[in-house]
Amino acid sequence: MNKIKNLFGDSWTEVTENVTWPKFSELQASSTLVLVASLIFALVVGLIDFLFKSGLELFYQSF
């Protein structure tokens, strides 16, 4: 039981005293970048899906 207590105590000390947390403005910038990149990726995947669907429909209609 003492080992578990030490683990949580050491973890709390690490998080509160030794970790350097980013500033809120840095978090906002990173979040915006992730959002924009995710939207671009979704659009590219959607476009590829649409092209494959259209191509396969044309292919199947030719028979």
From TrEMBL:
<dbReference type="Pfam" id="PF00584">
    <property type="entry name" value="SecE"/>
</dbReference>
<dbReference type="GO" id="GO:0008320">
    <property type="term" value="F:protein transmembrane transporter activity"/>
</dbReference>
<keyword id="KW-1133">Transmembrane helix</keyword>
<dbReference type="GO" id="GO:0065002">
    <property type="term" value="P:intracellular protein transmembrane transport"/>
</dbReference>
<comment type="function">
    <text>Essential subunit of the Sec protein translocation channel SecYEG. Clamps together the 2 halves of SecY. May contact the channel plug during translocation.</text>
</comment>
<comment type="subunit">
    <text>Component of the Sec protein translocase complex. Heterotrimer consisting of SecY, SecE and SecG subunits. The heterotrimers can form oligomers, although 1 heterotrimer is thought to be able to translocate proteins. Interacts with the ribosome. Interacts with SecDF, and other proteins may be involved. Interacts with SecA.</text>
</comment>
<comment type="similarity">
    <text>Belongs to the SecE/SEC61-gamma family.</text>
</comment>
<dbReference type="GO" id="GO:0009306">
    <property type="term" value="P:protein secretion"/>
</dbReference>
<keyword id="KW-0813">Transport</keyword>
<dbReference type="GO" id="GO:0043952">
    <property type="term" value="P:protein transport by the Sec complex"/>
</dbReference>
<protein>
    <recommendedName>
        <fullName>Protein translocase subunit SecE</fullName>
    </recommendedName>
</protein>
<keyword id="KW-0812">Transmembrane</keyword>
<keyword id="KW-0472">Membrane</keyword>
<dbReference type="InterPro" id="IPR001901">
    <property type="entry name" value="Translocase_SecE/Sec61-g"/>
</dbReference>
<dbReference type="GO" id="GO:0005886">
    <property type="term" value="C:plasma membrane"/>
</dbReference>
<dbReference type="InterPro" id="IPR038379">
    <property type="entry name" value="SecE_sf"/>
</dbReference>
<dbReference type="GO" id="GO:0006605">
    <property type="term" value="P:protein targeting"/>
</dbReference>
<keyword id="KW-1003">Cell membrane</keyword>
<keyword id="KW-0811">Translocation</keyword>
<dbReference type="InterPro" id="IPR005807">
    <property type="entry name" value="SecE_bac"/>
</dbReference>
<feature type="transmembrane region" description="Helical">
    <location>
        <begin position="32"/>
        <end position="52"/>
    </location>
</feature>
<keyword id="KW-0653">Protein transport</keyword>
